[in-house]
């Protein structure tokens, strides 16, 4: 099973989950990097405002080719109940995704809001079928039962070609 794990991580929590997926499933980690980072102040002001509006921030990756992959995994922190502007841009940059299966996840302090439904909608518009959705709060990112449930969903999606 060939997998791309596409994620943006501001504090390291989303990266931690993405690395656990990579360690269990293999695959290619795609760390979505902004061309200009937010400061700790602007992440929670301008970044959250841009997330609420569904804006795409400029990212280093101009295109993310997943044509050779069986499964796409996308992870995002929750900013103002939405995916980060970097993840919005990553979804826009995905190429070769039509007909692919995806598992999506969000990391958050307490609630995910509209993050996963909106991310799922954006992927559906690109021809991607979302087969699993997972939310990891502060305790969840270290909970092996919850992490393993997502890993199982990814492996199932990869075997159901």
Keywords:
Rossmann fold; alpha/beta; two-stranded parallel ribbon; 161 residues
How is the secondary structure organized here?
Layout: E1 3-7, H1 13-25, E2 28-31, H2 40-52, E3 64-65, E4 71-79, E5 82-83, H3 85-93, E6 94-95, E7 101-107, H4 115-125, E8 129-136, H5 144-159
Parallel strand pairs: 1-2, 1-4, 3-6, 4-7, 7-8
Antiparallel strand pairs: 4-5
Helix pairs in contact: 1-5
Report on the structure:
- This protein has 161 residues and is of the alpha/beta class.
- The protein has five helices and eight strands.
- The protein has one domain (3-159): Rossmann fold.
- The strands form two sheets. Strands 1, 2, 4, 5, 7 and 8 form a six-stranded mixed beta sheet that branches. The chain has a two-stranded parallel sheet with strand order 3-6.
- The chain starts with a strand and ends with a helix.
- The protein is 39% helix and 24% strand.
- It has helices at residues 13-25, 40-52, 85-93, 115-125, 144-159; strands spanning 3-7, 28-31, 64-65, 71-79, 82-83, 94-95, 101-107, 129-136.
